[in-house]
Amino acid sequence: MRWNDFIIGQNVTLTGDLKSISNIYIHGQIEGNAQSDANISIHDSGVVKGKLECVELEVSGTIEGEAQAKKIHITPTGKFLGNLATSVLRIDEDASFIGCSKRIDRRTDSRLTNTDPVYEV
Amino acid sequence: MYYYIIEKSKQKDFEKIEPKVKEILTNFDILGEFIYAENIVDIPDIVKTALDKGFSTIVAVGNDYLANAVAVNLINTKTTLGILPLEDGVLSLSLGLGNWKNACEILAARRVLLMDTGLANDKPFVTEVLAHQSPDIAPQIKSSSILSKILGSPKSDPSESIPINININDEYEVASDITGLIIGNLRPYGKDLESIRQSMIDNNLHISFSDKVDSGTVYSQIGVIDNNTKQSNISIFHANSFTIQSEKPLFFWSSGQVIARTPATFSLEPQSLKIISGRLR
Q1: I need a surface site. Which of B32, B33, B47, B108 has the fewest CB within 10 A?
Q2: Which of B173, B196, B229 sits opposite A25 (nearest CB)?
Q3: Does A73 touch chain B (CB under 8 A)?
Q4: Between chain A and chain B, how many beta carbons pairs sit less than 8 Å apart?
């Protein structure tokens, strides 16, 4: 853990827009958006309703909304409902993804613009 | 010109090393005026006298309590704070002062760090503020970090969980039940002294709280998280301005005194304290 990382504890609800230059670890709930210049981890108990932007995103909890990251990993306990844009998408067995994904070029920072294939795993 | 304030309770400790200290300070040409402080409540008047006399540097000779008490009276002044520690403390260790001999050399080298300080309902603080539901019993810090030896203390009474709401920079709100909460200007946890020192000048206050442990134990829990981010009962936020509201009163303690109660607004005073620091790595 880096000294300026954010941790949202299990029984915490955050409402609004969180911006960080460092990592964000989510065990509680976010109703809003989170943006990190580093990585975001949604742990098993974490729930996000909103939009996430970061370098690498790991989803072991639940996200309802949008996400954009260079790498997105949905682990076996993860549930993703919504649209995502990423260069590298990894969806583990037993993970859930219902929504649209857009592949973005690693060298560009394109935003969610289209609604390409729909996956359900 | 240097002005040295010595804790009266440390007089015997100081007298043992006084000749050597004065010899070293004389060699460095920073020997100045010495005064004993009978009581911590006398510090504002003593510091005011020193400021009126135009001393460029006021040195706290003793522990962190004295250093903090002197520091809050030097915020936003031109006068620099030095520390000559007679025992280990969070502030002295974070500044890399070492023992009193090293500290004398560091005073002479005079590397001045512009340190952030904090305000709690307009009352200044330097290192940290601990929330407690009692206005009478001071919470004690426990830590498992590199500073654990100096922060070690008996476990304080577990607190009842109370709901709080924190509005951070008017950008987002955090709602939680808490049993313990610390607002730190520097972070006396983690394994890296350099990170702790960076936190003194990072333009942020650090809010750490838990719904499982009391304020005094929050830092030791963060020490656990340092190795395992799957721990979920601690929250950490960083901000330069925020307001805390609670359903029941929460009292904020700094250096053994209550300096604010909820609703409390905290803000950062960037680079507001000139303090002599050891060499940065």
Answers
A1: B33
A2: B229
A3: no
A4: 72
Residue A8, chain B, CB below 8 Å: the answer is yes
Residue B66, domain CATH: 3.40.50.10330
pLDDT in single tens digits along all 121 residues of chain A: 777 899 999 999 999 999 999 999 999 999 999 999 999 999 999 999 999 999 999 999 999 999 999 999 999 999 999 999 999 999 999 999 999 999 987 665 544 444 454 554 5
According to DSSP, the β-strands at B123-125 and B112-120 are antiparallel
pTM of the model: 0.86
Residue to substitute from B178, B200, B236, interface A, most A β-carbons within 10 A: B236
Contact A9 B171 (CB under 8 A): no
- Reported ipTM: the value is 0.88
In chain B, whose CA is at the least distance from the CA of A33?
B172
Q: Which two tokens stand for residue A9?
A: 């504890």
- DSSP structure string for B44-63: HHHHHHHHHHT-SEEEEEE-
Does B205 share its domain with B239?
yes
My answer on whether B93 and B208 are in the same domain is no
